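Readers of this paper often ask what the protein records in our data store actually look like. This encoding replaces a full spatial description with a residue-level series of whole-number codes. For reference, a complete record is included directly beneath this paragraph.
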Amino acid sequence: MSDPLGPARQVWAGRASARSAMDLLYIVYLTVMTVLVFGAPALRSAGLFLARPDVLPVLLDARTPGMLMAALLGGGAATVLVGAVRGPALLAPFLTATLAAGPISRRRVLWRPLARSLLALVAAGLLLAGVVGATLLGAGYAEPMGLVALGAVAAGVALLLGGAWLAGQLLSSRGRGVVAGLLTLAAVGAWLLPPWGWTLADGVPWALAAVLGGAGAVAAAGSVLALDRLRGWVLLEQALRWQSATGMVTSGDVAGAAGSLRPPPSTGRSLRAVGGGPLTLLYVRRDVVGWLRSPERTLGGLAGVLLGAGLLVVAQVLTGPLGVGAMLLGSLALWVGTGPFVDGIRHGVATLGAPALFGQRAGVQVLLHALAPTGVLMLGALAGGVAGLLALGAEGVGGGNVTLPVLMVPVLLPVLLVPALVAGRARDAAKGPMPLKLMTPMPTAQGDGAVLGMLAWQSDAVLLALAAGAVLWGLVTQVGALALAGGALVAVLAIAVMARARLRELGA
């Protein structure tokens, strides 16, 4: 029987960028030597740096395993939702249309991109496990063979996350919502459970390593078998969307790339977004209907808000590198979580220069569209902060018999950071095109440094969000709640003034 992939293989092997077997062996050799020569010493240095009194108690705490389990379950929910936009088994649009949509089994065509995605997840998991293991080993709390069990656990969990990622690409919108919701509820339950009575100082049991490693292997094998069930129109749509996004990123249009990755509304077409009543409530209604029409984006954003608020509460208890890391990750998660809720603000900015069909100027629309996201996100940050407090316990916040107002002070940080982030979203929406002067070459002794200005311009919104989170975190931990409230008010006003200036400049 003739091989149906024979002609395709001949064309693929004859392309200009084709690699021979020796090229592949050289790549494997180079990867192994890089890990041995640079990776192992770097992990050892990182472990010695982190083996310090403000890091080890957190790693060895009895609540750490439960929090790690909650993080993994939450990561599973996130990967399911990501699979709706860009799955692990994806080819270029041309190859998708010619191979994956042809009579050949999709399993034979898509296993290579799936394998690359799984290997990337496994590499990331092994890197994190290596840092934790090197820290425990440097402090004398682990043995070299214990690191092997930890690596097996990390690889198994990474493969399970890969299975969840493929499930997001395979399932329908309703199925993804159900699976992501169940995983999120499980994550909240694991976060709030009492300590397990086992810590990382006890070492990773080989039985746990075998179970998770075996489950990961089964998930990987099942993922390969499930490739035949992928729908052709989903593959082609994701391939076209991903090609468009990567092209925009290459040209420097990061905002456009993020917009092209947003899936179209999937539900609630019968919901009326326009009606009577006061103007403020009308805009709130429009925003809420928009959220309901894209439930996956809304749930993903809400999960990011809950996670970010919890991390910001935990960051006020931690010190040193863990405290700074939790603060940065929390601020970033809170910023990402605001994205699905501010489409109305983006629409208001997009009406600049257009006829005022509804009788309100662009600035008024932005202001009215900011009301509903700010209120909902502050409530979400409050819920996530309370969940962080419950996971820590009163003794982790203040110790002793603390009153309720004192106990709730850490929750103020994520709640008061939300208005500043919403104002930052309005400022980012009014960004406009990149100035031509940033693309002017700036020759230096090390080469052209123009890319630094371009990167700073593209990432200024994220950097501003991280800076706002860092300033408010420093105020609440070093000064107190009153300084936090004052700093939050100043941050909101300053970012709002910058947003207004950008709107006026863009309108001009």
In short: Residues 22-196+203-263 form one domain. The radius of gyration is 25 Å. Strands lie at 443-444, 447-448. The longest strand covers residues 443-444.
